């Protein structure tokens, strides 16, 4: 074999492999990859550990990130004529296996932290048995001994050449990508071994077809006895520490379980429930749930209220309990406030408020089997956030209990902003007629929002996101959002499905840039949608591009727990690959008005907050921007 040139160059751009493609290649060629790892690993490990390590290295060959759409770049590798080397996904996985096997062959050093491959594998694990391939003939034994005398890199070169069918250039590329210090020396060392490549396919080198034998039975018996003594000692110590006295016990300073706590007992007494006077909201400086009066035809049903409070404190196994993220589902800390108790459709419903949470208890009109208990966090809710609470859901329809200051209600389809909102009738108690909520089937053909007009004449919109309290919809700049109009959400409403059931408090839509599309293809609006949560963290941010050709915007980037598009970081930048009507591909990018320049990977840089440059369909560029003060702005991720 001739040594390859020292600086091999790829014939084209490095291929990019998706995580799912790498997983498919690993599953399809798993026996081949495990055999490769087994042959490259040093025989000094022993056959049992060598088998387990080969499987562990192969199973860890996938990219670290498992998020859908993630991709990795495969270093340049030239392929031989045999096997699946034409598949970039297989080449990537094979490279990871070779890297791990080479690392496993390095000696441990006292002054450096060992790599994972140098330690016994955590998985897979087999206890009580030793596994090893079937015994080979004299030729296989001689080859195994000869390979044991080689360095790890030379052993990898021999196996790649013989089992993978790579030529010298291909072997050189793989070893270089795997971090080998001197691939040429490895090739020269491998040249000294007789070319008996057909033996590499022998059952004696197959770590997937194994034989099993027991471990040292006497030693194992001794270890079991020692473990039993240790467990018994731990149990005795635990019992002594938990005994009553001056030391700590299981409940610390708490009273015995049978003791009655006055506050806890009051919280379960329907007679102790608080209720605001009917006109309290007119005299109060606050417009929140604390000034809602108790309404409904069953507010005097003490047995119903007693059941609701008892289930709240101790829900049984048959009770369906749900809570928005970040909401405690425990018992009330004291007497709660009654908001509503009445019959809605085929259920008896009770709504309670403890200053932090809204709690909804529902039971069938006949019996109590199938009761439900829902929790929603509403601390600090004022104004629009305290305008309505879901009182019932049935067959995709929703009923709300509206605040006492609400004067009228209507339903607006956000996807049809030109269509007038439909008036929504309410009962004397403030319960709306049922109306269709946003579809949960994945087909976004309509998105109904609740429009409420309060006593001041202000109109505010909110939408159901699968929780007790609808999310407040706003629009405009992050530092000064305004009440949203249907037109503000006509092309972003469908994106709200991605934040359903996340404990969302409010959602703001901000159109931060308008861009003329290349080749006279019209204009596009860039928008940022930010959803804030009741718990303060866990926000969701989406960047969209909206064109006249589509009824809805296209999400180009998203992030969780990012300050972008919020009052603390009122700026954003996003990009997308876009195809013109003539079939040309462009990289489009847009930043908020405070972005003064945009840079794309590859060197393209423009002054201003808009970018449009020709590119290829397969390009995967990255964008960044700069503010006027030099601060760097990255795309959402």
SSE map:
Elements: E1 16-18, H1 19-28, H2 30-40, H3 47-59, E2 71-73, H4 88-104, E3 129-133, H5 138-148, H6 152-162, H7 168-177, H8 183-191, E4 210-214, H9 217-241, H10 262-267, H11 280-283, H12 302-313, E5 320-323, E6 337-344, E7 347-353, E8 357-364, E9 372-377, E10 388-394, E11 397-402, E12 406-413, E13 422-424, E14 435-436, E15 448-454, E16 459-463, E17 471-475, E18 482-483, H13 486-489, E19 504-516, E20 523-533, E21 540-547, E22 554-560, E23 573-579, E24 585-591, E25 595-600, E26 605-607, E27 610-614, E28 623-627, E29 632-634
Helix pairs in contact: 1-4, 2-3, 2-4, 6-7, 6-8
Write up what this structure looks like:
The chain is α+β, with helices and mostly antiparallel strands. Strands 12, 13, 15, 16, 17, 18, 19, 20, 21 and 22 form a ten-stranded mixed β-sheet that branches. The chain has a five-stranded mixed β-sheet with strand order 5-9-8-7-6, covered by helices on one side. Strands 26-25-28-29 form a four-stranded antiparallel β-sheet, with no helix packed on it. A hairpin with a 2-residue loop joins strand 10 and strand 11. The longest helix is centred in the middle third of the chain and has 25 residues, at 217-241. Mean pLDDT is 85; it is low at 1-11, 79-83 and 245-254.
Give the overall average pLDDT.
85
Shape: flat
Distance between the termini: 48 Å
Count every beta strand, where a strand is a DSSP E run of 2 or more residues.
29
| Backbone structural class | alpha+beta
Helix tally equals: 13
Low-pLDDT runs of 5+ residues are: 1-11, 79-83, 245-254
Radius of gyration: 34 Å
């Amino acid at each position: 074999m001739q040594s390859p040139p020292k600086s091999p160059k790829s014939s084209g751009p490095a291929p990019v492999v998706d995580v799912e493609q790498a997983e498919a290649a690993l599953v399809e060629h798993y026996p081949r990859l495990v055999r490769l790892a087994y042959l490259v690993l040093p025989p000094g490990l022993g056959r049992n550990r060598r088998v387990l390590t080969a499987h562990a290295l192969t199973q860890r060959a996938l990219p670290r990130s498992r998020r859908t759409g993630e991709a990795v770049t495969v270093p340049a590798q030239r392929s031989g004529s045999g096997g699946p080397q034409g598949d970039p996904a297989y080449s990537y996985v094979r490279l990871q296996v070779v890297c791990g096997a080479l690392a496993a062959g390095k000696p441990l050093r006292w002054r450096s932290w060992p790599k994972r491959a140098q330690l016994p594998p955590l998985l897979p694990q087999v206890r009580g048995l030793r596994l090893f391939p079937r015994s080979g003939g004299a030729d296989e034994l001689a080859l195994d001994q000869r390979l044991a005398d080689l360095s790890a890199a030379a052993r990898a070169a021999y196996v790649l050449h013989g089992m993978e069918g790579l030529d010298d250039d291909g072997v050189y590329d793989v070893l270089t990508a795997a971090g080998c210090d001197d691939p040429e020396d490895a090739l020269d060392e491998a040249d000294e071994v007789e070319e008996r490549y057909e033996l590499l396919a022998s059952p004696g080198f197959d770590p997937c077809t194994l034989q099993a034998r027991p471990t040292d039975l006497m030693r194992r018996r001794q270890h079991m006895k020692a473990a039993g003594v240790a467990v018994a000692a731990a149990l005795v110590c635990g019992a002594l520490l938990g005994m009553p006295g001056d030391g700590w016990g299981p409940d610390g300073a708490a009273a015995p379980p049978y003791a009655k706590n006055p506050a806890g007992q009051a919280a379960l007494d329907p007679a102790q429930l608080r209720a605001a006077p009917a006109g309290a909201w007119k005299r109060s400086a606050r417009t929140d749930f604390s000034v809602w009066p108790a309404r409904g035809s069953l507010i005097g049903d003490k047995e119903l209220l007693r059941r609701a409070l008892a289930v709240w404190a101790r829900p049984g196994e048959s009770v369906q309990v749900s809570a928005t993220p970040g909401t405690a589902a425990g018992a009330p800390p004291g007497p709660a406030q009654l908001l509503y108790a009445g019959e809605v459709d085929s259920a008896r419903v009770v709504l309670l408020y403890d200053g932090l949470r809204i709690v909804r208890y529902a039971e069938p009109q006949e019996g109590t089997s199938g009761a439900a208990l829902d929790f929603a966090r509403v601390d600090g809710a004022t104004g629009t956030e305290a305008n309505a609470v879901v009182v019932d859901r049935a067959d995709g329809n929703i009923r709300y209990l509206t605040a006492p200051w609400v004067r009228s209600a209507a339903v607006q389809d956000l996807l049809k902003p030109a269509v007038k909102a439909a008036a929504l009738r309410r009962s004397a108690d403030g319960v709306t007629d049922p109306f269709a909520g946003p579809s949960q089937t994945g087909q976004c053909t309509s998105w109904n929002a609740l429009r409420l007009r309060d006593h001041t004449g202000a109109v505010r919109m909110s939408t159901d996101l699968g929780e007790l309290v609808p999310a407040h919809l706003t629009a405009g700049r992050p530092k000064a959002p305004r009440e949203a109009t249907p037109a503000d959400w006509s092309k972003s409403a469908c994106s709200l499905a991605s934040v359903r059931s996340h404990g969302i408090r409010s959602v703001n839509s901000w159109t931060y840039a308008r861009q003329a599309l290349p080749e006279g293809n019209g204009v596009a609006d860039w928008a940022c949608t930010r959803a804030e949560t009741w718990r303060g963290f866990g926000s969701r941010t989406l960047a969209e591009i909206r064109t006249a050709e589509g009824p809805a915007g296209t999400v180009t980037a998203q992030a969780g727990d990012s300050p972008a598009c919020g009052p603390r970081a009122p700026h954003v930048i996003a990009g997308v690959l876009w195809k013109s009507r003539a079939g040309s591909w462009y990289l489009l990018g847009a930043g908020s008005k405070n972005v003064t320049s945009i840079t794309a990977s590859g060197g393209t840089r423009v002054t201003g907050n808009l970018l449009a440059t020709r590119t290829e369909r397969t390009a995967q560029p990255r964008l960044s921007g700069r503010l006027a003060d030099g601060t760097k702005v990255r795309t959402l991720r």
